[in-house]
Every structure is written in structure tokens, then in C-alpha cells.
Amino acid sequence: MLDLNIIEKFDWKNIGFFRFKKFDDKDYLLTNEVGNYVFLPEADFKKFISGKLSKKSAAYKELQENMFFLSNRKYAPVLISKFSDKYSFLQYGPSLHIIVVTLRCNHKCIYCHASAVDTGSKEFDMDMATAKKIVDTIFKTTNKSVAIEFQGGEPLLNWPVVKFIIQYAKEKNKIEKKDLQLRLVSNFSVMDNEKMKFLMDNEVNFCTSLDGDEETHNYNRIYLQGNSFQKTVEWIKKINEAYKKKYKGKKRNYYRVGALITVSKKTLANYKKVIDTYIKLGFKSIYLRYLNPYGFALSATEKIWYTPQEYINFYKKSLNYILEKNYNGKHFYDFGAVTYLAKILFGHDLNNLDMRSPCGAVIGQLAYNYNGDVYTCDEGRMLAKMGDQMFRLGNINENTFEQLINNNLCKSICLASSTHGLPGYNDDVYQPYIGICPVYNYSVYKNIFQSSTNNVKYQIDKAIIEYIFEKLKNRKNKDIFTEWVKKSKPLQYLKTYTK
Amino acid sequence: MKKEKGFAVLLKKNDNLLEFKINPKIYTLNAIYKTAYFFLDKVYIFLDGDPKKEIKVTMKSKSGMGELEKVASEFYNELLNQLLREKVSYTNAKVREFIVAKALYNAVPNEVDELLKEVEEEDWQEDPLGIAKTWEEQQAEKGEKSKKSKKSRPSLTPSLKLRSTKKLRPMKKKGKK
Is residue B34 part of a domain? Predict the structure, then answer.
């Protein structure tokens, strides 16, 4: 425990800005503005505060190397450079553009966040004119990198519009010369060889929903026309095989189908089977995210929900299981952990839009609904489907790009998700790594500014980071974590990867 | 009752209340606020007193005395943590501002440089609005213009042009040599 005498002797001439907390019985954890960290035993922490730490001690050297001393000549230049790198996304503007080409879906997933409608409701399809205006608007972004992501519903149910957007965007990009990426998020149930060929020829990346092993997946993802798991896996294998063939001997051979998991109550018990399935199918990572409180997920409480503590326990067990796989030579990681680890170990923000400060809403991404309505982010669009238009920026037919971006909603969201300066969040030792989602806050607490002390999502994220730090104390784990971040390249692919 | 320098705590079991008396000359108001904030989800908090003499923090339990006893022992620790955070933030405020300003400026060098370049490359030397010209020059040109009635090319970026012209050649008031 600190005492007043030590605080009064604070060595203000030499010590730079840092955040801290008593980490466990033995150590204090200190972090600085750019995410460098040091564990200090309590006795050393007190000596550090009062300027009595011997310059020859290992603790002093570690603090010096990690930029905790103002007296270090490199202090300002290094921090300026790292801070600039960490927050470089602030200068670019929205790069991720999610287009919901239809709300129709042939699955009835028990947690569906998008509140999808049945396949016969064609009035929920996007038309060509709207699609064209959306693409025109997207290319007005100030960001040199543009990622167009097709979502739904099941986007392949409105194939003509998907096809048109791909062709039109590629044509338009011949003039605009952006770094254009195209992605399809699909359950693959209506995929066929012709569509696959077209998508691959146009370098569209594939991403699908895979909730783990067959039992867990089919429990969550109900598909009346067949076995969802088998259908998904069939196409994952087929597309990966085609990728391998296409990029054989070329530098760009890292492409493979990406997958997203939604963690439900069923996943908690089956975590080993879920992870094993991902590894067996050749995935290099999994993203074990906490369930979002949108859409049908809110009404299916009994079937899918769990307590925050149950989720934290699940995450810890899963991370340990994944580490075990790595101890045995298998390279496999959790994408959420890597997002934090990139900030912790390298001071690098992978631009995972949900986990940065300020969050990616508007300034990193925009979501376009089938009818041309534009939302701050996909979560804002999901909330709108539940009847709350709080995060609607406007409509593609009524507003210019500038009007969509330069408005009070955008500014409010940036304020509400910037952990710098927010009471409670600002002083947190994990501030350099954590992000807040104002849409989550609004959805759960009816306020985009939610106190840090009782923000469930924030407390969960903190528990996860804390566990990662606990694991980092072990050298072997630290080496594995370092490899995860290094091998998670190409960063270009990850930079706008959020879904 | 726990007693530390400038800090006293009293647990009023009958009223289900916890009371802290804090000397604001030792523990800053900000540190007291932040400490109170830290316990928001556990207890109801009431602040009172004189910011120059003594601050009174009263806490009422949300779930019973057990909670209050726990908070009573944690509050002082957290107050010390917050006091240290205050010192760290205060003494580093200028350096942090400098680092952030420099980092964010450096993050957009191209845009700023491009803007400056654009300003430099502007054909301000042509000075179509005649702002940079002396009164004598303007008078002399007036005579010429009335003969030729030739218009100057309008500026594409008048605000930039005006700014750059102003900066490089201070305007002179009409009629003043």
C-alpha cells in the first residue's frame, strides 16, 4: 500500500506520465501513454515514486528502456513517434464500408443481430440505383484504403446487386486509384461455382459464420433446408482449395476464407470442440467475442445468454487451451488477444474498430442499409432494425458525404468513445489498450456515456486484458504472444478487419 | 475510527452510513472526487463541507453493512492512489500536451505541407484583387483600367490567396504613404 510520505516525495523532475494499479500480491503494473508496460515489485514501485531507485538496478533499466523517465534523452522523440503511429488512424477517415444488400436470410439463427427477414420479402432488397449512389459516396472518403464489405441478411440472395457493386466499384477505382478491398460475409448456403469464380476473379475476400463444431454451430444457426455446418464447411474447403490453386507460387498465397464465431451459451461448454474444429479446418485464428445485445439475441435469453463472469471464465479456459496448442507447436491465436497484444507489445493499433479509442464509428466505418439509410456502424444499423434510429446519419439519396460525416452525432460518438479524458476510463492502467462502444452503452444503459464502474462490457474487456497480462508474466507465453502478433501479418489485411 | 494524516473515517452502523472527513489541503479535491467516483457502483455518495477547510464524504450502502465495512478499508488506499495520479498528471501536463500536439501534427505532415505548398504555388504575385499594391500603384492602374477595362483572372482560392498575400506583403491603408 502507498503512504502519504512517499507520495509527497514524488520525483516529479524525472518521472514521466504513467498509469498504475496494484496488480497482484507482489507487483504493481505500470503503463505509459503509448502502451509500454513494466511490472514492479511494491518495494521498487515506492522507490521509483520517491526517486530512490538505484540506477544500476534491473527495475531502473527496464523503466528507462520503456520510457518512464523524463530524464531519458529519447523520451520525447520516442513517445512522439509511437503516439503518432498508434493514433495514425485519426487522420484517414472511414475505410470500412458495410453494405447491407438485403435483409433477407435463409437461416434463422437464434442470436441474429441483424433481425433478418424471410426469403420471400423482396421489398427488403437493395435496388441498383441505391447501390450506385452508395458506391459513389464511398469513393468520396478521404481514406486511401477502401474496404467494401457485403453483409445482410444473406448478401448472396441479392446476387445481381452484389455483382453490380463489385463491377462498378472496380470500374470506378480505375480513376480513383484507391487501395480497394472487397469482402463478402456469407453463410455460403446459396454459393455456387459460378458465383465463386466471379468473386475470386474479382479478388473478393470471403468470410463466413462458423460457430464451431457441428453440434454447436447447428444449435445456433438454424437452417431448415439442410445442415448449415456441412454446407459452410463444404464451401470453406472448396474456396480454400481454389485459393491455393490460384495463388500457387505467388506472394499473395496467404488468402483463405475468414470465419467469425458468435459465442453463445452452447459455445461455453463446447469450447474445446469449437477451437479444435477451427484448427482442423485450417484457420489460423478465432475471435472469441462477447455476444452483442442486438436483434434476436435479446429475446433468446435462455438459449444463448450467459453471465459476464461465465464469459470471462470461458475466455480464460479457451486462451489456456489455445496456448496449450501453441506449446505443442501449433500456431493458432485469438484475434481479440492479438489486437490487445499488438498494442501491449508493439504499441501498434491493428485498427480493430470495436477495440480502439476513439472507436471506429463514422471516422473508421459506415454502414449502408438496403434502403440507402446510412449508420455510424453496423451495430448502429442493428439497433435501428429494433426500432431505434439513434445512430442513423442520414440517407444516401438526401445527404452528401460531408453531411454524413460532419455532424453532431459523429462528434458525440468520438467524445463518448475516447478513453482519454473520460472519468474512470482515463485513469485506468489499461487505458492505452481498451476501447468503448457507445452503441453498446446506449443499447444497454440508454446513455452513450456510461460510468466505467458499472459498464459490463468494459469490465469484461478489462478482465481479459488483465488475464493477458497475467499470462505475459511467463516468458514462454510472452514469446508465443510475440509470435502471434508478428505472424498475424499482413497487417494490411488486418487493418480494417473488424467483422 | 481510522485516523491518518488529514483523514478520518467513521462508521455509523445504526444509520447504515460511512463518513469520511478529509483535509483538502493534503488531498486535492480532484483526488477526492475521483476516489468517490471509484465507488459509485457500490454505494450512494454524498459530498459536503468546505473546499478550503474540510470535505465530508458520506456513503450509504446499497446492500448492507458488510459492503460499507469493505469500502471503509478500501477508500483510503484509493484516495492515495488518486493523489499520486493527480501528481503524475499535473507535473506531466505540459509534456503530454507537447507530445500529443507534436505527434498529431507529425501524423499529417503531407496535408499541412501540401497546403503550404499550395499557398506558395498560388499566383499571389499576380495579386488580382490589388491588395498588396501601394496606393500610388493602384491609382496608376486605375487610369490604365479605365482605358482597357480588362478584368483580372478571379482567384480560385481567394481565402488562401488573401492570407498568403497578407502574410508576405502587409497591406497598406489607402491614402497613407
Answer: yes
